[in-house]
Amino acid sequence: MLTAFITGFLTLLTLILAVGAQNVFILRQGLLRNHVFVICIFAAISDALLIWIGVIGFSTISNIVPGISKLMALAGATFLFGYGIMRFINAYQGSYAMEIGNESSSLNKSLVALAGFTFLNPHVYLDTLGLIGAVSVQYVDNAHKYAFATGASVGSLLFFFSLGYGARILSPFMSSILAWRILDILIGITMLTIAGFLLLN
Q1: Who has the most CB within 10 Å: 5, 46, 191, 201?
Q2: pLDDT for position 24
């Protein structure tokens, strides 16, 4: 059971460490110190939900709705493209009074954006439902499967909180408009790149 837990924990960390849209968004929220706890909890619960669905059996869902992956890719690419363009516009306009002043934006707005990055991103489904689910197949009995899923869920929780609160270390470097412009340009490039890959795959 402990081995299954550790395997789930390490498998999740190797998958989630890649720079993705969800991680970049949480990093930005962490820099802003904007609803960090709620954002991290929401991301972790969402991941845990998808992990458990993957372990229990995502292949069944794919068989029932065969075109779901293509539909999610199109929706995800559209969402990421729109957010990427928004970041470029923000960088061009250079209006960063809220960022530099650490003012808080709406919690609802932040959660809607995070939900989009989570549930409209096919890579999240590939990692949590597909790959995590595939690795869990090695465990025949439910006790080991559940230990594996629990380990992966704990790994997700620790990662998101480390990312959200660890971002504060960078806060002293983000006190200028130029720094925020560079960050937004990098985020925009990341979002458009991911959107392109989604459309090409």
Answers
A1: 191
A2: 80
Contact (Cβ atoms closer than 8 angstroms) between residue 141 and residue 1: no
CA distance 58 to 163: 28
User: What pLDDT score does 58 carry?
Assistant: 56
CB 135 within 8 A of CB 6: no
Rounded to a whole number of angstroms, the CA Rg of the chain reads 18
- What is this structure's pTM? 0.71
Q: Which of 44-53, 102-111, 185-194 has the lowest mean pLDDT?
A: 102-111
| Cβ neighbours, 10 Å, residue 137 | 11
> What values do phi and psi take at 141, rounded to 5?
-85, 150
Residue 74 CB contacts under 8 Å (≥ 6 apart), including other chains: 198, 199
Question: Which residue is listed with tokens 């197949």?
Answer: 137
Residue 67 pLDDT grade (very low, low, confident, very high; cuts 50, 70, 90):
low
- Classify each residue of 24-35 as buried b or exposed e, where b means 16 or more C-beta atoms within 10 Å of its C-beta: bbbbbbbbbebb
Q: How far apart are CA 131 and CA 12, in angstroms?
A: 9
- What is the rounded CA–CA span in Å between residue 80 and residue 94? 21
Q: Are 22 and 117 in contact (CB under 8 A)?
A: yes
> What pLDDT does residue 41 have?
96
Share the mean pLDDT of the chain.
Answer: 79
